[in-house]
Amino acid sequence: MTEKEAFEFVLNKLMECGLFIGEYDARNGDEHFMYGIATVMESIAYHAGDDVGDAFSDLFTKNLIKSEEKIKSFNIDFSATVTVKAETVSEAYEKLYELLDNIPETREVQVSSVCVDDDQLRPEEELNAE
User: Fold this and answer.
1) Nearest CA among 36, 33, 41 for reference residue 59
2) Under 8 Å between Cβ of 33 and 27
3) Which one of 54, 65, 78, 84 has the fewest CB atoms closer than 10 angstroms to its CB?
4) Higher pLDDT residue, 62 or 110?
């Protein structure tokens, strides 16, 4: 077996897994991870030959785009109630924004209202005096 044939053999074995040909759960997955996979897989493919590399690159790119287009046509609306424990209103908002920052970029979030239970919060001045 030549070196090119060995690379093509490895490529074909890896391509049995959809992830290695650009098919992934774009809603929950990370596209940056997929670009890393593409880099490694294209390197293997081009070692098998320029024509193999070009064909693989086209296939991976088409599948990647198809995976990402699936989430554009599929939206789910839902609501959730989030309770944040805090001593002040500003601390509560800081925690809320921290939660929102941890939501993947592939998700769209809209905050429609924020309710504050004033009985559970201490005034800022009281905390500063301690």
Assistant:
1) 41
2) no
3) 78
4) 62
pLDDT digits over 78-101, tens only? 666 767 777 777 787 788 778 777
For tokens 């049995």, the residue is: 16
Cβ pair 99, 93 in contact under 8 A = no
Rounded Cα distance between 19 and 59, Å, is 12
Q: Quick check: helix, strand or coil at residue 119?
A: helix
The helix/strand/coil state of 69 is helix
The whole-angstrom separation of Cα 101 and Cα 87 is 21
Report residue 2's pLDDT band, with 50, 70 and 90 as the boundaries. Answer: very high
Average pLDDT for residues 113-128, to the nearest whole number? 58
